[in-house]
Write a structure and sequence with these properties.
With 393 residues, the chain is an alpha/beta fold. It is 32% helix and 24% strand. The structure holds alpha-L-sorbopyranose. Alpha-L-sorbopyranose binds next to loops. Keywords: Oxidoreductase.
């Protein structure tokens, strides 16, 4: 008996070019490496080229991560013939320039969150995406947590009306990697590169997931922000040299959604012991949902229509074959992780490109989040805290 190698996939190719190869670039690479081997796709993504400024380092990254070629100039990457989709994984200060150039070069674009560092940049990106859409191109922003199966299930339950009218949205996103005052002043702590701190990094996810789950935008916010450690050692600096942190460590804000729901948000990178705790709770007239990214295969659901004696939060283990995204993975109970969200993101984007539909979250969605982030900063800047009189009860 002879065993033949299966025929190669017949789906037309989709060349992907990625800019940036640090943490997010590695996560996206994992998605591109996996997606066509796990899901049936109408197009066959190929990892054409990766781009970074340091020639030696980017060549090494290409080999390690599975990219066929390396470029040192993103302008060369976005005009390559074998690239149809540009995936942007750089710090926020270069998103707008790369995305607009890629769209103008006729490419589809996937851009990491937050979409940009300012509302003006995000507006320019959304405008370029609108023009490109008329030529059949698509643009998507990388809010990958929408693709956690448990959060996708949460969205389905809200859409099906299982919560009734959602009244409360409570989102916190807590990390602790900046508790150490000697953590260096890296790009994520500099406004000129990152736009803002925990707000843009974590708050962007929090705002997107709240608006997405409820299906309604925030219409106003009231905020406080704080930078607890104002000076940190210069990255790559010598001795005791310290520089000024120009972004927030933490942001707290409340908001109102167009649907009428009230929302509260807490995002911080100085919550000792919390590593990547994105927690979401929704309370509606018929039930509630709760989720914690540190237990990402679980969703808690309370059905308030059940008899009181039997009601209460119950844990849904989101690993069944008919749960979102699970049809292609492991048997029930075998759990997914953080990296799978990038595979799911790639799957949804490739399918949208093939179908000619606008993928979500679109650049318009990214722009809406950017407007919320700007409103939070504006509100925090006004510091409209109602000061209590000293000594009053
Ligand atoms: C760092 O705080 C970070 O990597 C974010 O930038 C990501 O978007 C988030 O998913 C995990 O934390």
């Amino acid at each position: 008996m002879s065993y033949d190698t299966p025929a190669p996939a017949t789906a037309p190719p989709l060349g992907v070019g990625m800019v940036g190869y640090a943490f997010m670039g590695q996560a996206h690479s994992q998605g591109w490496r996996t997606v066509g081997r796990v899901f049936d796709l109408p197009l066959s993504p190929s990892m054409a080229a990766v781009c970074g400024r340091n020639a030696t380092a980017v060549r090494a990254a290409a080999g390690r991560l599975g990219w066929a070629a390396a470029e040192t100039d993103w302008r060369a990457l976005v005009t390559r013939q074998d690239v149809q989709l540009v995936d942007i994984c750089t710090p926020g200060d270069s998103h707008a320039e790369i995305a607009v150039a890629a769209l103008e070069a006729g490419k589809h674009v996937l851009c990491e969150k937050p979409l940009a560092n300012t509302v003006a940049e995000a507006e320019a990106m959304a405008a370029a995406a609108r023009v490109a859409r008329r030529n059949g191109q698509v643009a998507m922003v990388g809010f990958n947590y929408r693709r956690v199966p448990a959060l996708a299930l949460a969205r389905h339950l809200v859409e099906q009306g299982r919560l009734g009218t959602v009244r409360h949205v409570r989102v916190s996103y807590l990390q602790d990697w900046l508790v150490d005052p000697d953590h260096p002043l890296e790009w994520r702590l500099r406004r000129e590169h990152a736009g803002s701190g925990a707000l843009g990094d974590l708050g962007a996810h929090a705002v997107d997931i709240a608006q997405h789950l409820v299906g309604s935008p925030l219409t106003g916010v009231s905020a406080q922000t704080e930078t607890f450690v104002r000076e940190r050692p210069l990255a790559g600096g010598h001795g005791d040299e310290r520089g000024t942190v120009t972004v927030d460590d933490a942001a707290l804000f409340t908001g109102r959604l167009a649907s009428g729901a009230l929302a509260s948000f807490e995002v911080t990178r100085v919550a000792a012991g919390r590593k990547n705790a994105l927690r979401v709770e929704l309370n509606g007239t018929l039930g509630s949902l709760a989720f914690d990214l540190e237990r990402l295969n679980e969703l808690e659901f309370h059905d308030d229509t059940a008899a009181a004696a039997e009601a209460g939060f119950r844990r849904i283990l989101v690993t069944e074959q008919d749960h979102p995204y699970l049809e292609a993975w492991w048997p029930p109970g075998h759990g997914l992780g953080y990296e799978h969200t990038f595979t799911h993101q790639a799957r949804d984007l490739v399918r949208a490109i093939a179908a000619g539909t606008t993928p979500a979250p679109s650049f318009e969605d990214g722009l809406q989040v950017q407007r919320v982030l700007a409103a939070v900063e504006e509100s925090a800047g006004k510091n409209s805290v109602h000061t209590l009189v000293e000594g009053s009860p």
